[in-house]
Amino acid sequence: MLDTEKNLLFLHYRAYYFSMTEPLPHWYLLGAGNMGTLAAWYLTRAGHTVSVVTNSPRLPLQKQLIFANQRMSLTLPCVSPAELPPAIKHVLVASKTPYTDSALQRVKGHLNNETQVLRFQNGVGALDGRLPSGSVMLEAITTSAVKGQSPQHTIVAENVTWIGGTAQPPEWFEGLQIHWPNLHWEADIRLVQWRKLVANAVINPLTAFYDIPNGALMNDPALLDQARTLCSEADALLAILDSQWPGDSFTAVLEVIRDTADNTSSMRADYQRGATTEIEAINGWLLCQAKNQGMDLPSHRRLVEALTSTP
Ligand SMILES: NC(=O)C1=CN([C@@H]2O[C@H](COP(=O)(O)OP(=O)(O)OC[C@H]3O[C@@H](n4cnc5c(N)ncnc54)[C@H](OP(=O)(O)O)[C@@H]3O)[C@@H](O)[C@H]2O)C=CC1
Ligand SMILES: CC(C)(CO)C(=O)C(=O)O
Q1: 241-244 CB contacts, 8 Å cutoff, 24+ apart
Q2: Last residue of a domain, which of 159, 187, 215?
Q3: Which of 99, 171, 256, 275 might form a disulfide with 270, Cβ 3.0–4.6 angstroms?
Q4: How far is the CA of 79 from the centre of ligand 2 (A)?
Q5: Does residue 16 sit within a domain?
Q6: Is 256 found in the same domain as 179?
Q7: Residue pLDDT, tens place only, 56-84
Q8: CA–CA separation, 31 vs 120, rounded Å?
Q9: Which ligand neighbours the alpha carbon of 156 most closely?
Q10: Segment 256-298, tens digit of pLDDT
Q11: Whose CA is closest to atom 29 on ligand 1?
């Protein structure tokens, strides 16, 4: 037997043992959009159960997930806030960041210091100060991509996903890893999160403002210069926040631009349709941290001003 097969068998055995001793989580999902549906798919494959918390009780959601080689159906039951149990143990937050507060309102009063909250969002800090003290915050970062309009979700790219935020993974993590391709545990999730944050803070607002696909940033020396400046401002701040920050964001961002050259960034898509973008949780978070350090990030500030000013 190969080592990888032995490892998989071991993981299956551990997951089975755990499911016999501890019930698998029931997740209350806030935001059954693209990412929420993909996460719900893998959680249910691993034997967890998932309900969507909606303000108006509805029939179960009948979701379609379109993978590269197959089309799958997923039924997600809905519950209204009034139907929630007094205490919720597992919450998955996958709403777009500007709607986090209204999403959390639905579970208000049901979270406590035993609740595990898994945040599946871009940007940083959307839940800061919004959870009861003692609740466990886990962060998920992914380079996978899902597009579409509910109930149809097309999995455009299945890449790497990291979950982390506590010293040890929760007991259910190993079982989930068997079913979720390329899922990794990262105890200190910040560096992974900040790498993604910087890519989003550079690519998203530039492509939204200039109304171009990601790859077009490579074709214009002036735009590349802007990207370089945004990266070095972010690196200067992040190095102060954490001496372990490896810097060199420009190289990492160029790689993401190349890998997603044909993409319309999520911010460009939101901006084009006049929707509120996630810029506050991305560049806004960097600006807020910079302010706390007595720093300015002029390129990020100007982009936020340009994209949030009313025309
Ligand atoms: N899609 C992707 O490929 C990736 C997404 N992400 C991140 O994951 C998070 C979720 O993204 P994604 O699933 O694509 O988002 P969606 O556009 O699918 O929306 C997710 C949920 O956000 C809420 N929402 C969205 N628009 C509105 C609106 N105009 N008014 C009120 N609520 C709204 C809805 O919640 P409800 O159903 O509760 O009303 C919706 O189901 C974001 O932070 C995104 O940046 C990260 C990596 C990749
Ligand atoms: C990585 C990138 C920039 C891909 O388009 C993205 O995450 C987004 O569009 O929000």
Answers
A1: 241/289, 241/293, 242/190, 242/191, 242/194, 244/191
A2: 187
A3: 275
A4: 31
A5: yes
A6: no
A7: 877 999 999 999 999 999 999 999 999 99
A8: 10
A9: 1
A10: 999 999 999 999 999 999 999 999 999 999 999 999 999 999 9
A11: 275
